[in-house]
C-alpha cells in the first residue's frame, strides 16, 4: 500500500489579539496567573459576526491547496475536525464544500476535540493508502470565543482557549521512505464528563443536576429556560487538574507507542509537535522523553489552546520557520476531552 504524505499545509488565525491583560477587563484574572499556569501570553479571537469556524477553515485550506499545487476542484474528499461547528447540524465539512465551490465530494465531520486533527489525518491516511481518494483536504478549525463565558465564574476555561484554523492536503507519497508511517488512536470514556459541554445535547438534563430543563414535560427538553441559560447551563465544564494529570501520562504513552511501532526511539525524533493544551504539559512531556528544546515546537504562548486547530497551526508555523526539512521524523501527538488521545509519525 502506498503511504500518504502532506503535500500542502496552511493556517489562518484571526487578526484580533487579546492579551492576558485584555481578559482581565472582563474577569478577575491576571497575566502572571495565566502565564505561570499555562504559558499563554495572548490568543486570537474571531470577528463575532463575520468569521466562523468554516470561514477560518476555508482560509487555511486555500493556502494548503495552493501549496500542494492543485485547485479546490481537485479535492476529492473533505475531513473537517472541530468541536465548535457553525451549526449544531449540518457539520462544517459541507459548508466548506459550498464556500470553496468544490465538486460534490464526500465531506466527513470529526468530533474528537483536541485530538480531532490527528483522528482526521488518520482517517484520510487510510483512504489514500487504499487508493480510494487522491487529494484529501483535512481541516481543523475552532471558533471557541463564541461559546465561552468571559465572566470570573468561567475563568479557568476561558483564559485557555483561542480561535484559529489549520489545514493539510494529503496525497499518495511517490517516495516509499516518505509520508505518514503510522497513526495511533485511543479513547477512554470513563471520565467523559470532566471536560465537556452538555448543552445542546440529548442527555443534557442529567448534567443540569438539580435543575433539569422542564422536568414535568412528557417529551422534549432541549429548550432551556432563560434562567437556566443565564445560570451557565450551556457553558463548557473542565476539571483542569484532573485533565492535567491524565494528559501527562497519555501524551508520552502514545508517542512511545508510535516510536515502538516503527522500531524507532525518542532520539530519532527531529521535531515533536504536541497539541498545544498547556505549555506546562508540553514541557513535562519533553522532559520525560529527554528531548532538547529545539526538538519540540510550541506556540501556545501566541494562540492559546485552539483544540482541533492547534496541531496543524503549529505544524505549519514550524514548517514555515524552516524547522522541518525533507527526511525529518516529525511526531504529532494530542490529548483532550473524551478522553481521546492520538499520535502520528511522519517522515517528511
Ligand atoms: C486549568 C489550569 C490552568 C488550572 O490551573 P490549576 O493550578 O490546576 O488551578 P486550579 O484549577 O486548581 O485553581 C487554583 C486557583 O486559581 C483560581 N483560578 C482559576 N482560574 C483562574 C484565572 N484564570 N485567573 C486567576 N485565578 C484563577 C481558582 O479559582 C483557584 O482559586 P482558589 O485556590 O482560591 O480556589 C490547569 O489545571 C490546566 O492547565 N489543566 C489542563 C487543562 C487543559 O489542558 N485543558 C485542555 C485539554 S486539551
Automatic annotation (TrEMBL):
<keyword id="KW-0444">Lipid biosynthesis</keyword>
<dbReference type="InterPro" id="IPR013747">
    <property type="entry name" value="ACP_syn_III_C"/>
</dbReference>
<dbReference type="Pfam" id="PF08541">
    <property type="entry name" value="ACP_syn_III_C"/>
</dbReference>
<comment type="pathway">
    <text>Lipid metabolism; fatty acid biosynthesis.</text>
</comment>
<dbReference type="Pfam" id="PF08545">
    <property type="entry name" value="ACP_syn_III"/>
</dbReference>
<feature type="active site">
    <location>
        <position position="114"/>
    </location>
</feature>
<keyword id="KW-0808">Transferase</keyword>
<keyword id="KW-0443">Lipid metabolism</keyword>
<keyword id="KW-0276">Fatty acid metabolism</keyword>
<keyword id="KW-0012">Acyltransferase</keyword>
<dbReference type="InterPro" id="IPR004655">
    <property type="entry name" value="FabH"/>
</dbReference>
<feature type="active site">
    <location>
        <position position="305"/>
    </location>
</feature>
<feature type="domain" description="Beta-ketoacyl-[acyl-carrier-protein] synthase III C-terminal">
    <location>
        <begin position="259"/>
        <end position="348"/>
    </location>
</feature>
<dbReference type="InterPro" id="IPR016039">
    <property type="entry name" value="Thiolase-like"/>
</dbReference>
<keyword id="KW-0275">Fatty acid biosynthesis</keyword>
<dbReference type="GO" id="GO:0033818">
    <property type="term" value="F:beta-ketoacyl-acyl-carrier-protein synthase III activity"/>
</dbReference>
<feature type="active site">
    <location>
        <position position="275"/>
    </location>
</feature>
<dbReference type="GO" id="GO:0005737">
    <property type="term" value="C:cytoplasm"/>
</dbReference>
<dbReference type="InterPro" id="IPR013751">
    <property type="entry name" value="ACP_syn_III_N"/>
</dbReference>
<keyword id="KW-0511">Multifunctional enzyme</keyword>
<comment type="subunit">
    <text>Homodimer.</text>
</comment>
<feature type="region of interest" description="ACP-binding">
    <location>
        <begin position="276"/>
        <end position="280"/>
    </location>
</feature>
<dbReference type="GO" id="GO:0004315">
    <property type="term" value="F:3-oxoacyl-[acyl-carrier-protein] synthase activity"/>
</dbReference>
<comment type="similarity">
    <text>Belongs to the thiolase-like superfamily. FabH family.</text>
</comment>
<protein>
    <recommendedName>
        <fullName>Beta-ketoacyl-[acyl-carrier-protein] synthase III</fullName>
        <ecNumber>2.3.1.180</ecNumber>
    </recommendedName>
</protein>
<dbReference type="GO" id="GO:0006633">
    <property type="term" value="P:fatty acid biosynthetic process"/>
</dbReference>
<feature type="domain" description="Beta-ketoacyl-[acyl-carrier-protein] synthase III N-terminal">
    <location>
        <begin position="108"/>
        <end position="189"/>
    </location>
</feature>
<comment type="function">
    <text>Catalyzes the condensation reaction of fatty acid synthesis by the addition to an acyl acceptor of two carbons from malonyl-ACP. Catalyzes the first condensation reaction which initiates fatty acid synthesis and may therefore play a role in governing the total rate of fatty acid production. Possesses both acetoacetyl-ACP synthase and acetyl transacylase activities. Its substrate specificity determines the biosynthesis of branched-chain and/or straight-chain of fatty acids.</text>
</comment>
<keyword id="KW-0963">Cytoplasm</keyword>
Amino acid at each position: 500500500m502506498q503511504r500518504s504524505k502532506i503535500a500542502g499545509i496552511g493556517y489562518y488565525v484571526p487578526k484580533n489579539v487579546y492579551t492576558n491583560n485584555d481578559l482581565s477587563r472582563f474577569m478577575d484574572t491576571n497575566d502572571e496567573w495565566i502565564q505561570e499556569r499555562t504559558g499563554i501570553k495572548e490568543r486570537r479571537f474571531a470577528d463575532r459576526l463575520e468569521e466562523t469556524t468554516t470561514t477560518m477553515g476555508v482560509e487555511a485550506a486555500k493556502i494548503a491547496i495552493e501549496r500542494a499545487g492543485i485547485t479546490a476542484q481537485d479535492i476529492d474528499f473533505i475531513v473537517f475536525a472541530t468541536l465548535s461547528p457553525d451549526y449544531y447540524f449540518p457539520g462544517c465539512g459541507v459548508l466548506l464544500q459550498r464556500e470553496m465551490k468544490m465538486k460534490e465530494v464526500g465531506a466527513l465531520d470529526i468530533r474528537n476535540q483536541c485530538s480531532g486533527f490527528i483522528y482526521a489525518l488518520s482517517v484520510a491516511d487510510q483512504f489514500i493508502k487504499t487508493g480510494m481518494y487522491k487529494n484529501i483536504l483535512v481541516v481543523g478549525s475552532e471558533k471557541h470565543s463564541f461559546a465561552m463565558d468571559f465572566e470570573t465564574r468561567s475563568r479557568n476555561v476561558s483564559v485557555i482557549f483561542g480561535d484559529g484554523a489549520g489545514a493539510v492536503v494529503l496525497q499518495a507519497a511517490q517516495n516509499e521512505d516518505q509520508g505518514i508511517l503510522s497513526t495511533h488512536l485511543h479513547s477512554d470514556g470513563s471520565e467523559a464528563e470532566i471536560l465537556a459541554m452538555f448543552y445542546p445535547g440529548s442527555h443534557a438534563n442529567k448534567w443540569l443536576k438539580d435543575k433539569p430543563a422542564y422536568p414535568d414535560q412528557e417529551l422534549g427538553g432541549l429548550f432551556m429556560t432563560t434562567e437556566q441559560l443565564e445560570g451557565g447551563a450551556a457553558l463548557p465544564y473542565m476539571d483542569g487538574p484532573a485533565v492535567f494529570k491524565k494528559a501527562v501520562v497519555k501524551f508520552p504513552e502514545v508517542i512511545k507507542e508510535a516510536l515502538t511501532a516503527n522500531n524507532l526511539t525518542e532520539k530519532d525524533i527531529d521535531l515533536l509537535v504536541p497539541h498545544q493544551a498547556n505549555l506546562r504539559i508540553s514541557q513535562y512531556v519533553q522532559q520525560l522523553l529527554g528531548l532538547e528544546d529545539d526538538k519540540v515546537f510550541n506556540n501556545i504562548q501566541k494562540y492559546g489552546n485552539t483544540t482541533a486547530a492547534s496541531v496543524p497551526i503549529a505544524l505549519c508555523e514550524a514548517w514555515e520557520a524552516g524547522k522541518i526539512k525533507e527526511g525529518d521524523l516529525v511526531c504529532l501527538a494530542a490529548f483532550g476531552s473524551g478522553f481521546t488521545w492520538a499520535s502520528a509519525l511522519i517522515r517528511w
